[in-house]
Amino acid sequence: MELQELFERLAILCISIFTLYYFSNRNRNIRLHPLLGLISVCTFFMCLVFTKAEYSLGVGFGLFAIFSILRFRTETFTIQTIVFLFVSITLSLLDGLLPIKNLEILLGINISIVVIYLILNYFEKKSPIVSEKNYIEVISSLDFLQLEEAERKRVLTEKTKLKNFSYNIKSINLNDNIVILKVSH
User: Is the Membrane keyword given for this protein (predicted)?
Assistant: First the structure.
C-alpha cells in the first residue's frame, strides 16, 4: 500500500468516525467519551501492521483477550457506546484490510454504514421505549429508608413533582447521611 493510499484510507476512516461521534452525542444525557474514536484508529494501524508482518493467530487471540479483560474491569457500557465501538472497529477493519484498488468503493461502504447508523440513531432518540432520559436522581437523608412505602411515594412526589413513577435505591452513603434514589418516570 502506498503512502497516499494509506492517508486516503485513514482520512475516510477519521471522517466517518468523527461524523458518528458528533451525531451520537447530540441531545443526549449520556455522552460518548472522545477517546473512544481512538480505538478505531488504533485498530486501523494494527490491521496494517498485521498485514505487513508475519504474526501468528495467537497474537490476535491475545488482543481479543486483553479487550475482554478490559470489558470486565471497567464500568458497564451503554448500548449506544457498545454499538459505536462495534461500528468504529468494523470501519477501521474495512478501511485497513479491504483489498480494493478503487477507493470510491471503500468511500461508498463507509458512507452507507454511517448513513444507516445515523438513521437508526435518529429513530432511537425518538423512541420513548429506548430513551435513556426517563429517570432522575434524587438525594434524600437516611431517614427516607425508615418511612413507610406510601410516605416514601409522597416525599418523592413533592420533590420531583411527578405523579407516575417508580424508584430504586442507587446508593447509600453513611458518611454523609444520604440516600441517592433513581426515580424513573
Answer: yes
